[in-house]
Amino acid sequence: MRRLLLATRNLGKLREFQALLPEYRVEGLAAFPDLPMWEERGDTFEENATEKARIVGRHTGQPALADDSGLEVDALGGEPGVHSARFAGADADDAANVRRLLERLRGRADRRARFRCVLVLVLPDGRAFNAQGLLEGRIAGERRGGSGFGYDPIFVPQGYRRTLAELGPDIKNRLSHRARAVEALRPVLVRVLAP
């Protein structure tokens, strides 16, 4: 089975990619404790994902896959966007980010939102490939459900009444922004990571 290094220390994200790419041995960065940390300074998801993949690829000499993703809320002009993980501050956890978002949306009728994921694969020779996935939906009025991570407890996908956290990982992994980005990148993965 071909190894694929995912540029993340987020265990929830790692589990999702392992489920989405069962034909690869997807590994996170646990085996590389001396890997330099990066700061997400880009203005776009693509800039951040590219920087992560390049750092991990240079340090390990292996193909590196990185994702940058986040939630874009129409009533907030696209926020939190690239700042989704730090929406409530640099050291905020998922619960704090969700609380801040719900506070900012209090009293607003327009709750349209989307999850956006950009994947970038960087090969040892420097070639880079990218793909994007979107999941349209709306923000619920309160947290609901116990699975998933991040904004899953307040995001209701278009065509559904339950949040991603209520739908569970099997359904989420079929329709998520990450699943759509993986499907868009899969032909590249098959071509360039062939054994």
Description:
By secondary structure, the chain is of the alpha/beta class. It has one domain: Maf protein, CATH 3.90.950. The protein is built from six helices and six strands; from the N terminus they run E-H-E-H-E-H-E-E-E-H-H-H. It has a six-stranded mixed β-sheet. The protein is globular, with a radius of gyration of 17 Å. The N and C termini lie close together (8 Å). The model has no long low-confidence stretch (mean pLDDT 93).
Keywords:
alpha/beta, Maf protein, 6 helices, 195 residues, single chain, six-stranded mixed β-sheet, 6 strands
What is the count of β-strands? 6
Outline type: globular
CA-atom Rg in angstroms: 17 Å
Determine the mean pLDDT. Answer: 93
Strand content: 15-25%
- Regions with little confidence, pLDDT below 50 for 5+ residues: none
Distance between the termini: 8 Å
Question: Which percent range fits the helix content?
Answer: 25-40%
What count of domains describes the coordinates?
A: 1
